Amino acid sequence: MIYLRGNLGAGKTTLVRALLHALGYTGRVKSPTYTLLERYEAGRLHLRHFDLYRFRDAEEWEGSGFRDEFDGHNICLVEWPEQASGLLPPADISITFEILQDGREIMLHAYTDAGRKCLSAL
């Protein structure tokens, strides 16, 4: 579970696109701004890219079936996780993007053993 935080245009979807391509995914990587969720497979990995910017209430969460995507087998990358506060599983890793005058600053934080293993491999 990876939370992606930052203002509009900070690079969250660009990072997801780069990650998928680095994992060998050759298809188009779309922003899930309007669909809220895009599903991808790269090798044997199942990735779920959520963009919850437009997400508004818990009823939408229950009706969407999103809970089923957090099954422990999928790698979930969630933009705007604060929009579903209290509904999402806790993050293994949080990546925060900040737009600076001369580029961007990216802060990574691990919250679990799995998250620490991932970050130590970088």
Task: Give an account of the 3D structure.
With 122 residues, the chain is α/β, with parallel strands linked by helices. The chain has a single domain (2-120), classed as 3-Layer(aba) Sandwich (Rossmann fold). It contains 3 helices and 6 strands; from the N terminus they run βαββαβββα. It has a 6-stranded mixed sheet with strand order 2-3-4-1-5-6. The relative contact order is 0.22.
Topology (elements, then pairings):
Elements: E1 2-5, H1 12-22, E2 37-42, E3 45-51, H2 58-64, E4 75-79, E5 93-100, E6 103-110, H3 113-120
Summarize the structure.
The chain is an alpha/beta fold. It has helices at residues 12-22, 58-64, 113-120, and strands at 2-5, 37-42, 45-51, 75-79, 93-100, 103-110. It is 21% helix and 31% strand.
